[in-house]
């Protein structure tokens, strides 16, 4: 099948996707919002007053969920390479999280505040070479994990989107070394044909 036909097929499936339709009704910027909603409903990772960092935030679906739940006493710093229209209660930084300057910008805003929650929906630009893309995805996972280990409270949560494939088991093992509890989650709103999986880690060792 040609790239054009592939693209047309994806668009057709996307438009008919029930979570896409629901997100439009509910005012969420992306269907990804329901992944976080589902995970939070089961594991209660977002509370009133939560202080969080949202990595790979654009277009803002997860930040919208956070904004609704954290209340006036909560604080969220969202980061993405792409531009993201403003959201109430969300402090947005546009830039590449892998660059030291952006990391410094985040830390300057935190002012030594320890976080209740770090969430990462970061994904690399896809090259089409499966092994290369997988390695890039795991690299972003590792960057997010390092940040979480340095800034989370001891009883904080770290939620990261990953992909099953090369180096996934090694990254999962790394999470288990760093946290007391680690859960593998495939939300209902995650497309069944996708290799994406969400890893939730709780309580730093």
> What is the number of domains?
1
Whole-number mean pLDDT: 89
Shape: globular
**Main beta sheet, described?**
7 strands, mixed
Q: Cα distance, first to last residue? A: 49 Å
CATH-derived architecture: 3-Layer(aba) Sandwich
Enumerate the strands of the largest sheet in spatial order, edge to edge or round the barrel.
3-2-1-4-5-7-6
Count of extended strands: 7
CATH topology, by name, is Rossmann fold
How many H/I helices?
7
The low-confidence runs, each spanning 5 or more residues with pLDDT under 50, are 1-12
User: In CATH's first tier, which class applies?
Assistant: Alpha Beta
Query: What proportion strand?
Result: 15-25%
Radius of gyration: 17 Å
Q: Which class of secondary structure composition applies to the elements?
A: alpha/beta
Helix fraction bin: 40-55%
Q: Can you identify the CATH superfamily? A: Vaccinia Virus protein VP39
The ordered string of helix (H) and strand (E) elements is: HHHEHEEHEHEHEE
Quick summary:
The protein is of the alpha/beta class and 205 residues long.
What does this protein look like?
- It contains seven helices and seven strands.
- Helix 3 crosses helix 4 (61-70) and helix 6 (130-151) runs parallel beside helix 7 (168-178).
- Mean pLDDT is 89; it is low at 1-12.
- With 205 residues, it is of the alpha/beta class.
- 35% of the residues are buried.
- It starts with a helix and ends with a strand.
- It has one domain: Vaccinia Virus protein VP39 (Rossmann fold, 3-Layer(aba) Sandwich), CATH 3.40.50.
- 43% of the residues lie in helices and 24% in strands.
- Strands 3-2-1-4-5-7-6 form a seven-stranded mixed sheet.
- Helix 4 (61-70) links the parallel strand 1 and strand 2 (75-80).
């Amino acid at each position: 099948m040609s790239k054009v036909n592939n693209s047309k097929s994806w668009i057709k499936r996307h438009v008919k996707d029930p979570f896409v339709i629901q997100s439009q009704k509910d005012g969420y910027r992306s269907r990804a919002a329901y992944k976080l909603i589902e995970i939070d409903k089961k594991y209660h990772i977002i509370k009133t007053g939560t202080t969080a960092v949202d990595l790979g935030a654009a277009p803002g679906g997860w930040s919208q969920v956070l904004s609704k739940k954290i209340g006036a006493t909560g604080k969220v710093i969202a980061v993405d390479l792409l531009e993201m229209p403003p959201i109430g209660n969300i402090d947005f930084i546009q830039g590449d999280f892998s660059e030291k300057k952006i990391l410094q910008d985040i830390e300057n805003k935190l002012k030594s505040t320890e976080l209740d929650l770090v969430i990462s929906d970061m994904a690399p630009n896809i090259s089409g070479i499966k092994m290369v893309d997988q390695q890039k995805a795991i690299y972003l996972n590792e960057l997010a994990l390092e940040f979480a280990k340095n800034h989370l409270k001891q009883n904080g949560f770290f939620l990261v989107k990953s992909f099953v494939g090369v180096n996934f088991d090694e990254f999962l093992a790394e999470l288990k070394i760093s946290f007391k509890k680690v859960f593998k989650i495939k939300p209902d709103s995650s497309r069944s044909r996708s290799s994406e999986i969400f890893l939730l880690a709780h309580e730093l060792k």
